[in-house]
Design goal:
Elements lengths: L25 H21 L2 H14 L7 E4 L5 H9 L5 E4 L3 H10 L4 E3 L14 E7 L11 H8 E12 L2 H4 L1 H16 L3 E14 L5 E11 L1
Parallel strand pairs: 1-2, 1-4, 2-3, 4-5
Antiparallel strand pairs: 5-7, 6-7
Helix pairs in contact: 1-4, 2-3
C-alpha cells in the first residue's frame, strides 16, 4: 500500500511572501514544533531530492576527512546527517535548529555531537573560523533565512572550508529578498576575496509534489579563501 502524507502543509510554509517577514515568527516555530513528529514520513512521501544532493556533494568533499567539523544549519530532525552517515562514518557533525520539537527527534537519533537550539543570522555570536564545512537544505525559503546569512556562514567557516547549500531554483526569482540580495551578497563575498564559487548549478526534482510534478533545485558550493 502506498504511503500517505499527513495534513501538515509543508509547501505552504515555504511560499513566497513579503520581504520583511521575520524568520523567528512564533507562528512558524509553532508549526514546526507541532508537526515535527510527522516530518520524516512526510518528506519520504513528497520526495525531497535536495537532501541527497547536499549529502552526496558534501561527501565528495569530505570523504577523506570524516572527522571534519561540519555544521548542519536548519538541521531539523537530522535527515541530512542520516544521509551523510550512510555514506561515511562522520564523527563531528553538529546541528543548529530553532525548533525544540525537531531537536527532540534529532537528539533521539544520536546523529550529532551537539545541537544548538537557535537561529542563525548576521553577527549572531558564533565563533568565527570554526567549521570545516557548513551544509543546509530547506532554509533559504520565504520568511526564513535572509541573504545576509551568507556572510555569517562565511565568517564561521575555517579558511579552506566549504559551504554546501540547496534551495528551490525558482525562489531566486520569486522570493523578493533573494531576487534583490542573494546573488549580490555572493558576488560581494567573491569580489572581497572572502570565498570562491565552486558550484552554481540547477538540478531536477529538488522537491516532488503530490501530483508527482518535480520542482528544480539549485546547488551552490562555496569555499572560503
Amino acid at each position: 500500500m502506498a504511503a500517505t502524507k499527513t495534513a501538515a502543509p509543508w509547501n505552504e510554509v515555504a511560499k513566497p511572501t513579503v520581504i520583511d517577514e521575520k524568520q523567528d515568527s512564533a507562528e512558524r516555530l509553532d508549526f514546526y514544533n507541532s508537526n515535527a513528529a510527522v516530518y520524516d514520513s512526510d518528506m519520504k512521501v513528497y520526495g525531497y531530492g535536495g537532501l541527497d544532493i547536499v549529502a552526496e556533494t558534501t561527501h565528495d568533499l569530505f570523504k577523506e576527512r570524516l572527522d571534519s567539523r561540519i555544521l548542519d544549519v536548519g538541521s531539523g530532525t537530522g535527515l541530512i546527517a542520516e544521509k551523510l552517515l550512510a555514506l561515511g562514518q562522520y564523527t563531528n557533525l553538529e546541528g543548529l535548529e530553532p525548533s525544540e520539537g525537531m531537536n527532540k527527534i534529532a537528539e533521539e537519533k544520536k546523529l550529532y555531537t551537539n545541537i544548538m537550539q537557535r537561529f542563525l543570522y548576521l553577527d549572531c555570536g558564533l565563533e568565527h573560523n570554526t567549521y570545516d564545512g557548513v551544509v543546509t537544505c530547506g532554509t533559504f525559503v520565504a520568511g526564513h533565512m535572509k541573504s545576509e546569512v551568507l556572510v555569517e556562514i562565511c565568517n564561521i567557516l575555517k579558511p579552506g572550508g566549504y559551504f554546501v547549500m540547496v534551495m528551490r531554483d525558482i525562489f531566486l526569482e520569486t522570493v523578493e529578498e533573494y531576487k534583490l540580495n542573494f546573488r549580490p551578497t555572493i558576488d560581494k563575498l567573491v569580489t572581497e576575496e572572502k570565498w570562491k564559487i565552486v558550484k552554481d548549478e540547477f538540478y531536477p526534482n529538488h522537491w516532488v509534489f503530490e501530483n508527482n510534478v518535480g520542482v528544480d533545485g539549485h546547488l551552490f558550493v562555496f569555499q572560503k579563501c
